[in-house]
Design brief:
By secondary structure, the protein is α+β, with helices and mostly antiparallel strands. The protein is built from two helices and 17 strands. Strands 1-3-4-5-6-8-9-10 form an eight-stranded antiparallel β-barrel. A four-stranded antiparallel sheet has the order 14-13-16-17, with no helix packed on it.
Length: about 250
């Protein structure tokens, strides 16, 4: 009798373990599918990258994008510059479980975006994906990871050499200024500090992004006056977090 009870308990435990494992596998598959779907369905705006241990950026005003394109029998990743026709077309061999391999990585219409400095900015981005300009051989295998940053997604693609490129699901400096909400930054331009004037909605956090979309500083206290004396001169995007959501404003550091 005791033996029968023990066997019955073991059988129940075994079934529970199997159910638990099945649930775990289902959760993992769901997460993977969500990652793949987010990867292929978003337009990704370049932020920064690293090649051979050196960080590189492209000014946000160039609006460089990564897009997934799928035809009936062909899939590819395309690096697009909307202001000109030069692009990289990288045919995808397979994509699954946050990994993918490329068939090739070919740049077309080289030089039509302009000579010199602009090409120097584009080249490191291309070289994350392939041996540009020497060949169209891709640096397989690639991995990717998507995470939520505040209220947007951030994609990181890493090649087989450890080089990577980072993209955001929104062009940070293209976000609208919600002047109707009653938020004003002054003075603007500012030299060392700026203040925040709001007719409503208390600001609970201030985030400062540079022109490449990189987070420079986050402030959660003493929000009436923001110190920017340590910043280099240029344009910055200021994210003002309130109880009702986020407001984006631009400021010029003299």
């Amino acid at each position: 009798m005791a033996r029968h009870k023990i066997l019955k308990l073991f059988q129940k435990t075994s079934i529970m373990k199997k159910l638990f494992l099945l649930l775990c596998v289902a959760a993992m598959v769901s997460n993977v599918n969500a990652q793949d779907q987010a990867f292929t369905e978003n337009i990704w705006y370049f932020s920064n990258g690293e090649l051979d241990g050196e960080i590189f950026t492209i000014p946000a005003s160039y609006d460089t994008r990564l897009e997934y394109v799928e035809f009936s029998t062909f899939k590819s990743l395309e690096i697009i510059h909307p202001f000109c026709e030069e692009s990289m077309d990288a045919g995808i061999d397979q994509i699954d479980n946050e990994n993918f391999t490329l068939l090739s990585a070919e740049v077309v219409l080289v030089g039509v975006c302009g000579p010199g400095p602009l090409q120097a900015l584009m080249e490191p981005h291309y070289r994350v994906y392939g041996d540009y300009p020497n060949s169209t051989t891709p640096f397989n295998p690639f991995t990717y990871n998507i995470e939520m940053i505040d209220d947007y997604l951030q994609l990181t693609i890493t090649n087989g050499n450890g080089d990577f490129a980072v993209y955001n699901s929104v062009p940070l400096l293209a976000l609208p200024e919600f002047d109707e909400t009653g938020f004003v930054l002054y003075p603007n331009p500012a030299r060392d500090r700026f203040s925040i004037n709001s007719t409503h909605n208390e600001v609970t956090k201030v985030s400062i992004y540079d022109i490449q979309g990189k987070l420079v500083q986050t402030i959660v206290d003493k929000l009436t006056e923001i110190d920017i004396s340590f910043l280099k001169s240029g344009f910055y995007l200021i994210r003002l977090q309130t109880e009702d959501g986020a407001v984006y404003k631009k400021i010029v550091k003299e």
